[in-house]
Please model this.
Amino acid sequence: MRPTNIKPTQDCVNSHLYYGVRVGDERHLVRSDHTVFSPADWIHEGLHRVSSWIPTSDFSQDGLSDYMTGKDVPAAAVYQMVRQYVRPRVVLIPDSYYTLVALWVLGTYLYRLFRTYPYLWVHGLHPRCGKTLLLETVQPLVFSGVFCVDLHGGTLRGLADSGVTLLIDDWQELRSARLSRAVLTSGFRDGLVVPSWEPAVDGFALRRYTTYSPKVIVGCHAARETLWDIALPIGMVRKEPTETISREGLRVHARDRTSLITDGLYIFGLNYAGVIAERYPQARYGWSLKGARDRERDLWQPLFVLAQLVDQEQGSERVTEALLELR
Model:
């Protein structure tokens, strides 16, 4: 039997969601049926690791133990935790942007279930309007978040191939960077690759770099022109001098301060993977999306699935309505 290729960060194989986790000094896989596989177990399961770089997992040992003993983290609860973390730390207008950001963060823990996953394009008319601050705020929350500045070329290709969430600040000159352009214009959709002939023991071998991974991008207007139909925009404005924001949890030891939230996000992803995979093809849309083109529907579909799930648990339609305000 041929082994099944699997990314050791996050992957979906045979309707099961997998995350890479650290158990002691070893890299294990946890599956959405409460099973943990050691490296030796991978072989018996017919799994073959395909990524060249494995980031550190943010799923703590306590969080993994909670999942294995059956802890439940409702979608509505983890959505509120993320939203309440972001809201006091960055100014977003309109208020529905907080809903978009919170749902997008949740979706990074499930993106391998979806055919497409939208980028977030963070922009503003003025400097010092909070664009970088937004990236700093969500970096410890998103799935395996890597914060980069002006990322290009082979480094961008390798990071996208690893399956991490990329938060790219100060993006410039996308038009003239062919490799970067290829990675970004294809990386919102599952299944696309950037091929490369690379040295091997017996000459050269064809390496296929996958480009699909969640991405938040801050950059110049020219890059926005390239990405306009695969990214959801977030327009930033300067806060008023009288407005205050919380700095707690930013930069130093941010991961330590958000570990309860990230553990909840991992558990949410594992517990809800089956439900969301079933609902994803059946997502229903509000009236304002009925005239949308296929690309736009594809981008919004994962977020509407999550919004409707949260609304169902909260007994309202407020989250879905907030998304519709942004369309």
Summary: The longest strand covers residues 16-23. The chain has a mean pLDDT of 87. The radius of gyration is 19 Å. DSSP finds twelve helices and 13 strands in the chain.
